[in-house]
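Quick entry, no commentary yet.
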Amino acid sequence: MTLKERLRFGLEHARRVTDKILDEIQEPKDWLLRPAPNTNHAMWIAGHLAFTDNRFAIMLDQPSAIDLDHLKDRFGKFSQPQEELSAYPSVKEVRELMRDRRQNFLRILDNCSEEDLEKPTPEGAPPFMPNVGMVFQMAAWHEPIHTGQLTIIHRILGNTPLADRPAEK
């Protein structure tokens, strides 16, 4: 398996797990459930993941990115989760944005050669992402940090952990 294949697998697997958890949030109010003060709720996490995929697109393939500046104060780095669902786009819109921005990010990866993954990132990229491949790797580990937060919400809502369920065929 090539590096590119491993990166794609990590990105796809992380998103499958996140989506399964989000699919089980049924009540609108549950999108704002915060397990403890100053923690993230599912709406913020979902929007943040979409926003972050778009930020990576800005770094790697500017023309494929979309303008999400109007959501920066809701989902960007250092933004704070809001207490009212009306402060956000609809759940459906946020989930669609997650899908669209991840599909775009995967297209960017698909268009990279193995050699492209070794190219330096543009000026201004954080030092922990020195090359293109590390941007994809960072995305593959960034999402599970937030998915871990979602698992707590998932359990509070009374759902069985995904790992405790029979394997899907």
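second:
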Amino acid sequence: MKRRGYRGVSFEEAERAVADQRYERMEKRQFAGGIQARSIFGPGLYLISDPELAAQYAFCHAEVDGSGRAAVLRQDVQLEQPFVINCQYSEMQLRQDALEWKYAGLALPHVRPEYIHTWLGRVTKDYLLAHSFDSIVYHVDDTVIYYVAYFQEKQIERIYLEFAFTMNGV
């Protein structure tokens, strides 16, 4: 399955990604005001189908970096065995199935609240990889799709600058 995905980043990160044709940083990040981008499906490269939404992420990244310059990158996403989340199979169902797979008949481990998303994400990713899925295609609604690529080197091609912008007052 070949798709086009977008990723919003600071301009400096965009320059490196285009030059290297790979991303240095995965999704988890602290933004201003306590906002976080979490890797809710485990470590991987998180992309979105909508360039305007990607620009909102870019704004947050540029704000954290303090540069005031942001960019949206586009790339081809090649997913061989994606797991599909949509109105028929939800994110919550995936988490439940992953936990049942990992801890069937066992007590769940005690995880500190600040690490719960990281732990759930790793369990979910382990579950998907154990069941031969290499990625996620998450239909949030009829217009927005998230892509999670677990193998950036094989799944992401042709990273290009879609657009860049400067933020005033940052």
